[in-house]
Amino acid sequence: MIVKFYQTAQTLGETAFETELAGDFKYWSRTQSRWGQGPGYRDDIADWTSDWFREEARNEREEFINAEIQQAWQKMLADLSAQISSNEKARNVESIASPTALQAAPSS
């Protein structure tokens, strides 16, 4: 269940901006031209990428992703709660029906 949630969140994150980022030639040109210009390449790329994701034009998509992840989280918690409840009920039924429970019961 948790693995499925993680996969859902990961897929949403990976695909949400994929087309837009892949098509941002200005971003890719800037990162490509930075290559080989000395120390700080990784930091520059990380900063530019963070800036790219922080642009206001991407806020709506980020809000959508967050809502989808929140919904998947709530579903996972509900499913886990139902599973725990079901397991507890099954254990209660087993303990009532087990021969040792019948033997331990006081006789009237």
Give a written overview of the molecule.
The longest helix is centred in the last third of the chain and has 39 residues, at 59-97. It is built from six helices and no strands. The chain has 108 residues and is mainly α. It has helices at 2-16, 18-22, 25-34, 41-54, 59-97, 99-104. The relative contact order is 0.10. The protein has one domain (2-104). It is elongated and about 75 Å long.
Summarize this structure briefly.
The chain is 82% helix and 0% strand.
Give the tags.
108 residues; mainly alpha
Continuous helix count: 6
Tell me the span between the first and last alpha carbons. 46 Å
Strand content: under 5%
The figure for the number of domains is: 1
How would you state the average pLDDT, rounded?
86
Number of strands: 0
SSE blueprint and pairings:
Layout: H1 2-16, H2 18-22, H3 25-34, H4 41-54, H5 59-97, H6 99-104
Helix pairs in contact: 1-5
